[in-house]
Write a structure and sequence with these properties.
Blueprint: E1 6-11, H1 16-27, E2 30-36, H2 40-53, E3 61-63, H3 66-70, E4 77-80, H4 84-96, E5 100-103, H5 111-124, E6 128-130, H6 138-149, E7 156-166, H7 169-174, H8 186-202, E8 210-219, E9 228-237, E10 243-249, E11 251-262, E12 266-269, E13 280-286, E14 289-293, E15 296-300, E16 303-309, H9 319-333, H10 339-359, E17 365-366
Helix pairs in contact: 1-9, 4-5, 5-10, 8-10
Length: 367
């Protein structure tokens, strides 16, 4: 392994990989050395298109199979954006080949699969991390500090998140996310994963004790063997009287909002997953006051906008760059961080509990 650069291999040419291709280039401690697809031609086309905008340090090999990429000596870590339904076998294979693993989300079909993936990585002494970019944002770190201090929000009582986009008829019929085999969790896995992750951070990484959840609308692609959640909601109960809700949907217009409410104020973020195009990542802090004097009732607004200097993507301080840089630090130093696989397991455990509650008609169940 290189002493200064983590050498990345991409298992598939999924579109999200283009964002991480640039992130790796900007990280300063990594480079892409190989890309695998089901054909060398498809891998080469991906490399050529990405290289036109962002050349990597050194040559990038086009590989015609995933097995061949995992056998390469010039690959230290693999990025795995393969469909959820087939991801486990390749994560386990990568770990057995001694490759560190950054994989997309949802991590797997269920907690048992995630545990197998995490155990394989631990046994091989390689890092495992899922690809939630905002985990590594400066904004999230600052928001967590504010919540922990308690001066703005006070004691946290309620956490609410909403992540949605409106998929057109073509999306609903043919997108992989409406395929029950490849992406069995539908919008819950694709969008709800982020809602759950933000909720965990806002709750101080404590797990909920119980929850109830329902699929509001089912979708099935034309080639799918079954239905997947197309619109989903859940209610979570945490220790210390904290509750949370989330809503995710393939049928509702673009919205990525989060709110944390307490006994002194509340904090809101309008773009908690993919920050708006700007040089800052912002949030608002609210401590409104209701003044009552006989017949006069005045609800006075007290809102402060706050921000950190952080680009939404494609710059050296963007969240995805921080993610791949942090991952490569673990690879290059040989210091494996168990925090990240544990965070993945917690999130998957809540996904599984949501599916169990949904199967029971939205029953309140223990996590």
């Amino acid at each position: 392994m290189s002493d200064s650069l983590c050498r990345w291999g991409f298992l598939s040419t999924a579109g999200i990989g283009r964002k991480n291709w640039k992130g790796i280039h900007l990280s300063g401690n990594g480079r892409v050395s190989a890309v695998a697809s089901r054909s060398v031609e498809k891998a080469q086309a991906f490399i050529d298109e990405c290289s036109q905008e962002v050349p990597q340090r050194g040559d990038v090999a086009a590989v015609g199979s995933y097995e061949e990429l995992l056998s390469r000596d010039d690959v230290d870590a693999v990025y795995v954006p393969l469909p959820t339904g087939i991801r486990k076998q390749w994560v386990v294979a990568a770990a057995k080949a001694g490759k560190h693993v950054l994989c997309e989300k949802p991590a797997a079909v269920n907690e048992e699969e995630v545990q197998e993936m995490v155990d394989a990585c631990a046994e091989a002494g390689v890092q495992f991390m899922d690809g939630v970019m905002f985990d590594h944002s400066q904004r999230l770190a600052r928001v967590r500090e504010i919540l922990q201090a308690g001066e703005v929000v006070g004691k946290t009582r309620r956490i609410s998140t909403h992540f949605s986009f409106s998929g057109d008829e073509s999306f609903q019929q043919s997108n992989i996310r409406t395929d029950a085999i490849l992406e069995p969790h539908g919008c819950l896995g694709d969008l709800g994963w982020y809602c759950i992750r933000f909720t965990l951070w806002a709750a101080g990484l404590e797990m909920p004790t119980k929850l109830s959840a329902r699929t509001l609308t089912w979708l099935a692609g034309t080639e799918s063997d079954g239905e997947v959640p197309g619109e989903f909601s859940a209610e979570l109960h945490f220790p210390n009287d904290v509750t949370a809700s989330f809503y995710c949907s393939f049928l509702t217009v673009n919205q990525q909002t989060a709110m944390v409410s307490g006994d002194r104020g509340y904090l809101s973020v309008d773009d908690f997953v993919l920050p708006f195009y700007d040089a800052e990542a912002s949030w608002n802090q609210h401590q409104h006051v209701l003044d009552i004097d006989n017949c006069r009732w005045n609800f006075r607004r007290h809102t402060d906008r706050n921000a950190v200097a952080e680009y939404p993507s494609g710059e050296r301080n963007a969240a995805e760059v921080n993610m791949v840089r942090r991952f490569a630090d673990c690879v290059n130093s040989g210091k494996i961080d168990p925090f990240y696989p544990d965070l993945t397991l917690k999130t998957q455990r809540i996904i599984d509990a949501c599916r169990r509650s949904d199967a029971e008609g939205g029953a309140l169940i223990e996590v």
